[in-house]
Amino acid sequence: MTETFKALVIENTDGNYKSEIQDLTISDLPDEPVLVDVAYSTVNYKDGLAITGKGKIVRDFPMVGGIDMAGTVVNSLDANYKPGDKVLVNGWGFSETLWGGYSQKQRVKSEFLTRVPDGFSLKDTMAIGTAGYTSMLCVLALEDAGVTPDQGDIVVTGAAGGVGSVAIAILAKLGYRVVASSGRTSEVDYLQSLGAAEVIGRDVLDRDARPLEKGRWAGGIDSVGSKTLATLLAETKDEGAVAACGLAGGTDLPTTVMPFILRGVRLLGVNSVTCPNQRRDQAWARLSQDLDVVKLNEMTTLEPLSRLPELGEEILSGKIRGRVIVDVNA
């Protein structure tokens, strides 16, 4: 009898879009060199778009969803990996053109694998996931731009979400004074527990700003886009920088060149999907140093594979706080 395992499969037949847990076999998996027993995945905003079909994420159907996964190598045709190695994957087209991590087993290209850093369990890496790894890429971008703690406040938008929560914890540990921007007034205590020195409402930034406003921020990490990012840029101080990594508020950017040519503000685009391996390794090494695992655990919940269809809706509705780990074997 052929062994089966569970996976979340996304299908679109004549416009009938659905995501459901199905039984698969090893022969169903992609013909790639490394077979992994998957332990955990996670839920990011992009996963919500893919699961629900509310964003044009999935390019090929049927698709196994999940842009992240962590697990143990079962067998490998690449000598760089051997059975028992602990590995993770973030991005690389997972859940877009390549089958992803919402599966109890997966075959992947070896060049997409990252070794689990010392000090992290498989579960820890998915508590971080793409959202947390992206947060670290944003912090690295601000550091590369010369933004230091003594220059003033750093604002983090979408603060109660995955990117925002991890960014606050990292920045606070590094000594920055962090201002959290959130539309969830009930989450003030949570955001302060992560290290936010101040919490402001979403409406403070989500407005029609003038081309230049009073300089308030030394830098920022933005996962919202649209008016929020435009206002943030208009309020950034001379030679400040903003790392942009998301579009929860929209893909448009209603701004002008004024912040860039009159204040030298820098807009730093952060791409986590096809980020080079050297930068990925740097980000994960820094996460192992600069992210408090206790705070990480406090912002994380654990859910079974069967809950994914509902979780996709919840993350798009702003009902998920912090990070969600998916136990694909539960």
Describe the structure.
- With 330 residues, the chain is an alpha/beta fold.
- Helix content is 28%, strand content 28%.
- Strands 3, 5, 6, 7, 8, 15 and 16 form a 7-stranded mixed sheet that branches. Strands 11-10-9-12-13-14 form a 6-stranded parallel sheet, with helices on both faces.
- Helix 1 crosses helix 9 (308-316), helix 2 (122-144) packs across helix 3 (162-173) and helix 2 packs across helix 7.
Q: Give the total of domains.
A: 2
Low-confidence stretches: none
CATH-defined superfamily of the largest domain:
Medium-chain alcohol dehydrogenases, catalytic domain
- Sum up the overall morphology in one term: globular
- The helix content is 25-40%
What's the CATH first level of the largest domain?
Alpha Beta
Question: Per CATH, which architecture of the largest domain?
Answer: Alpha-Beta Complex
How many E-type strands? 16
Work out the helix count: 9
Features:
330 residues, alpha/beta, Quinone Oxidoreductase, Chain A, domain 1, Rossmann fold, 2 domains, 7-stranded mixed beta sheet, 6-stranded parallel beta sheet, 9 helices, 16 strands
